[in-house]
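Encode chain A's predicted structure.
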Amino acid sequence: MKEKVLVAISGGVDSSVAAKILIEKGYEVAAATMVLLPDDEVRVEKARSVAEKLGIDFYVFDFIKEFEEDVISYFVESYLSGETPNPCVMCNQKFKFGRFLDKAEELGYDFIATGHYAKIGKDSSGRMMLKRSDNLKKDQSYFLYGMTQHQLERTIFPLESLEKDDVRAIAVASGLSNAEQKDSQDICFVQQGKYIEFIDGYLAERGLQQKPGKFVDTEGNVIGKHNGIAGYTIGQRKGVGMSLGAGIPLYVVEKDAAKNRIIMGSDELLFKKELTIANPNFISVEMLTEPVNVTAKTRYNQKDIPASIMYDDLSKTVKVYFDNPQRAVTPGQTAVFYDGEKILGGGVIIG
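Encoded structure for chain A:
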């Protein structure tokens, strides 16, 4: 009997080709798309047309209410609390490998699959491993650090290390109309990167608005006014327009949501040699019992750099110590740890 795979199809070329590859490998394949936003009709129809072209069954899962509660609300509240969140990481954890997998298992599927560029394997003990794609330009392992052993056991990444040109070539050969479709660069619910407009609109719908506050220097002296703490992120200079005089610019070096203050300082104050993450998830190990040398990154497009990490069982946090100071480490973002090509784990930066 063929193993059954339910592919998460968005309507884009990557997930469409993932389904095509699995069909050619002999799996019993079906597709499903998640409705996450009220205006998702166009995307759903694109996904449906792909399934029809491939001749496979198609499901639609309505998660609008859950997505608003778990991702959109989290996104807004994180910004208002002074953080800079990564909603794509949360979406992967809660939906693509959470609720989507639950639905697939309810329907009797053996695996799920997505169009992510990453690799899954096992070590000599049988523990599931998540590895970065050989296609480093497209590697998405950073966004997947939250996957559990069960999720990895039940997931297939058909694209693994394919080059994008190869993916498009497969789409063309398969007659898929989305073969030349551009990759989306935006958060799905925030168009053209206008996240402040989105947050303000979200609040206005609920009769709320951001509260103006103060810019202060590192001594606490008031040096200006801001329109809302969500509009600024650590390391920002553009749009602030402040200086120490003599042409020396000021940067956002800290955000104090409790007092609704944004602390401004010189560029040198943005560099840190250590950080703390909360709610860590480990993949290649069960738990850290001693300090470990790793490479780490605190942003998706950043190159991972040497560091050491240590788990604090009392606070349930991980301390990260960089060999060299890192600029603009930002609470709310994700720190991910690598052991060579393997993802050791990661978590959300809290300080």
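The first strand starts at residue 4 and ends at 8.
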